[in-house]
Design a protein that fits this description.
binds protoporphyrin IX containing FE
Amino acid sequence: MSVQQSDSAAVLARLRDVIKNDPILSGFLSAAITGTSHAARAPQAAPQAAPQAAPQRTKTGRPGAERSADGVLVCGKKEVMSVFANVDGNCTVKGYGARSAKCFGEFFLGLDDGPEDRAQSSAINAAISALTGPDGFRMGLEHTRAALAVPSDPPKKTEDVSTDMLAGVAAELFGIPDGELITAGKTGLHTLDHGVCPGDCAPLSGYIFRPEPDEMITRYGPIPGHLLLEQTKTLIARARAAASKPAGILTQVPFDTSPPAQDDLLCRALVGVMMGLLPTADGNFVAAYDELHGSADFITARDAIMALGDGVDFDGARAVPAGPVCAAMQESPQPEAVWRTAAKDHFIGDTNPVAVKAGDMIIVSIENATREDLSAGIQDVSAIFGGDRSATPQPLHGCPGFAVSMGLLYGAVTAMLQDAAARQG
Ligand code: HEM
């Protein structure tokens, strides 16, 4: 056994102890695994649903921002984008760093502007930003078609297609799941023998991104973070030992550009990026397709995609899914909210300025901002990505995967429409 593998075995043994010594967590997990409680009826869905479905204090009738018991709720589009831009350095993302430190360690999303953030994020963010809408469309189309091609009786639900599609996308981008240390699938209530991708990212992402994660996510969310980190470290250590490139185009970039001494940091960044992208892509895809499927526009969209033929590409297809996908995302965005901590006393909002105190939690209600645009007839999903990195001022933590993600969603919806047409026959 290599040093890395024996270290990982020790970490996983400690995690098993954590579960064993936490009566609430071990009761929940063992009941779900052995099938002795309500959780067992949906063992995959229980922890996954929690970070995405539990209501948050993100809705308000008041424009702009409002004070809440322990912080400030920011809800106007203008105010939300201003928090993302953070021109005056009013807010810090160190809270993300503190939470991720409890899961898989810190990475650049938990760092404020400065040389350390740039050093950690530049190469991988540039590689992600270089992925285009057409790249995403090709991945969404191919991996959704592959997911649909596996026979299933009853037919797969959108969420099952999404799991398989995203496992394929993650394998292409990160070499994860590798099928051994990390397998493909939904959130696993597993025995900590192996990670599960994309599923393990959902409770982890819920723990870090949700302003106020519920008790079960607070207990459960960090565990898959430790697990994914250890398995990723083993994958990278194996590639170094074999003097070979790891799989995954986005894993290869930091692998080639950073020294082996920084592999721990490299692995934290990879887990962090996967944790950020997979649950959000999943939530937006499922919401967008299911919304379209149930709407009066479905037949029109299906027929328009069929008219484009099998060789459909991004430029030809995007006009069909763009309207319904963006509207569904604006109605039910994932993430519905993210958060910051006030770095200093300041005011948010022009019309009814709210006084913010240093240390306040700032809950950024993406959902309010996107619904504000939707009701004004404006198609803009940039708030769902933490802002648009091509905008001035550039939001430091805005998603570099914005373009590739929209292509991915359009490609996946296109494949679903083609499949619906083929089955209708
Ligand atoms: C529908 C899909 C996606 C959504 C909704 C989404 C959403 C977000 C959001 C909201 C943030 C900012 C969080 C904050 O400021 O609090 C973010 C940051 C980030 N996202 Fe995404 N994302 C998606 C897909 C992706 C993809 C495909 C990748 C990579 C392949 C990616 C990589 C990143 C990275 C690296 C950051 C942090 C950037 C930095 O701090 O420098 N995301 N994303």
